[in-house]
Amino acid sequence: xxxxxxxxxxxxxxxxxxxxxxxxSLDFQATTMFWYRQFPKQSLMLxxxxxxxxxxxxxxxxxxxxxxxxxxxxxxSTLTVTSAHPEDSSxxxxxxxxxxxxxxxFFGPGTRLTVL
Amino acid sequence: xxxxxxxxxxxxxxxxGIPIINCAYENTAFDYFPWYQQFPGKGPALLIAIRPDxxxxxxxxxxISFNKSAKQFSLHIMDSQPGDSATYFCAASHQAGTALIFGxxxxxxxxx
Lengths: 116, 112
Prior knowledge:
The structure holds 2 protein chains of 2 kinds. By secondary structure, chain A is mainly β. Chain A is 0% helix and 53% strand. Chain A has no helices and 11 strands. In chain A, β9 and β10 (105-107) form a beta hairpin. Chain B is mostly beta strands. The chains are: A mainly beta, B mainly beta.
C-alpha cells in the first residue's frame, strides 16, 4: 500500500526557534500534499495545500510567513514552523495524494511538536 | 459552517457487535467519501472510500452505505473486535485528490 513518512516523529524546542518537518511519499509520486494540524481529541484542520513546483495554498487564518511550506519534489514536502511559540504546540500531519487510482490521500504518522 | 456532520461523538459496543457511524454532508459537489481510522498518537489510516455512483461498498468487515438523495453516508463495522477501538473520521471532497473536509470524529470503544 501507499506509505507516507514524516520526520521527526516528535520534537521539543524552545520558544523562538524554528522547526522543520519532512513529509515523504515512499512508494508513489505525489504532486499534491496536504498539511493538517490536530489538537487533542479534535478533528484534523487543513492548514495548507502543497503543490510540487509551486507556492502552497494556505487556508484562511493560517499565517503563511509562520508556516513555510516547500514542495521541491514529487516525493517530499516540508513544513517549517518559524519562531515557534507554545501555542504552536500540536500534532502536525501530512497527507499525500496518490496519482494512481482514485487519487486517494494517505497520511503520514504525524509529528508531535512541543514548544517550551 | 460545518460541511460534514458526524455522529455519534462516541460509541461503546460489545465484541461482535456492529457499530454504525453516520455522516451527513451539505455540498452536493462532493463526490468522494472516505473513512479513516486513527489510533492515539498516529496518523489516520484510510479504511474504505466510496463514490456516489454506488450505494454500498464492502471491504472486509467494513461497509459504507451511501444515500445520495439524503446526502448521508455511514460506516458499519461487522463483528467488531477490541482492536477496532479507535477514532473514526468521515470525510468528503469534490474530487478524490482535493483537500478533504473532515467530520469531527467518533471514538469507538469495543469491549471484550
